[in-house]
Design goal:
Layout: E1 3-9, E2 12-18, E3 20-23, E4 26-29, E5 33-38, E6 41-48, H1 51-67, H2 75-99, E7 107-114, E8 121-125, E9 131-133, E10 140-144, H3 150-156, H4 163-180, E11 188-194, E12 200-205, H5 207-226, H6 234-237
Helix pairs in contact: 1-2, 3-4
């Protein structure tokens, strides 16, 4: 499994992904974010699901982009091109995977901005290769292990959130997921795209670099728990036998 999140805010896009890949009982580290940028064309791609499907679809997509024969003025056109490669891999491999007891479960997030886009955009693709665009009212997509970090993002993230706050929220969503499951872990790749810049900024964080943030959050959660109003609990506690 994996953790990938992309958040659209007014300033641009914040995205992050873990790097743990599980193969049976073994763990390896692999990058789950790929970027493509030249001139006024900039996009990034994140995926979750079966790694063999992911690698093949991304390789085919890279070939399409590197060929340079097709011009994508808007991001959705590049998303459609990646969707075509997902369908291609599905035609080639789905039957064999099913015979082996494996599901064709590739999910993807594509974000960025092309020269004809009026603003930055984020799309999520499903295994069937259909897609949806993120909305300003619910400005994020989360794939992989999505249940643990979703409550925090639903409560606090909105379109006017600053880059700094979005980074904090994304990290805390990752931290909640990492604590709750064994197949999501550091290193953590973070990415920021500033709207209309056509340039992605990236950084990889190791566990040691963010351990103090995790410890700070844990301490304050524990302290907040102590101060949580408890008068309401007396209604049931008072019914306990002497």
């Amino acid at each position: 499994m994996t953790f990938c999140v992309a958040m659209k805010v007014e300033e641009g896009i914040v995205a992050m992904a873990d790097t743990r890949v599980t193969s049976g009982t073994e763990y390896i580290t692999a990058r789950k974010i790929t970027t493509h940028q030249h001139g006024r064309h900039c996009l990034f791609l994140m995926t979750s699901g079966l790694r063999a499907v992911r690698d093949k679809a991304v390789t085919y997509f890279d070939e399409v982009l590197e060929g340079g024969e097709i011009h994508y003025g808007k991001l959705y056109q590049a998303v459609n091109a990646f969707a075509d490669q997902i369908r291609r891999v599905s035609r080639e491999d789905r039957a064999a995977l099913q015979q082996s007891g494996l599901s064709f479960n590739l999910n993807a997030i594509v974000g960025g901005q092309m020269e004809d886009d009026k603003e930055h955009k984020i799309y999520m693709l499903y295994p069937e290769a259909n897609w949806v665009e993120v909305s300003n009212s619910n400005p994020y997509f989360l794939i992989g292990q999505s249940s643990y970090g979703k409550p925090l993002l639903d409560r606090f993230l909105n379109y006017t959130t600053s880059f700094g706050m979005a980074l904090k929220m994304g990290y805390l969503a990752f931290n909640a997921t990492r604590v709750a499951t064994t197949d999501v872990d550091f290193p953590l790749d973070m990415l920021i795209y500033k709207r209309d810049s056509y340039k992605v900024v990236r950084h990889r964080y190791e566990r040691e670099e963010l351990e103090m943030v995790s410890q700070w959050w844990q301490r304050h959660l524990a302290e907040s728990m102590k101060h949580l109003p408890e008068e309401w609990s007396q209604d049931i506690l008072s019914k306990l036998p002497e």
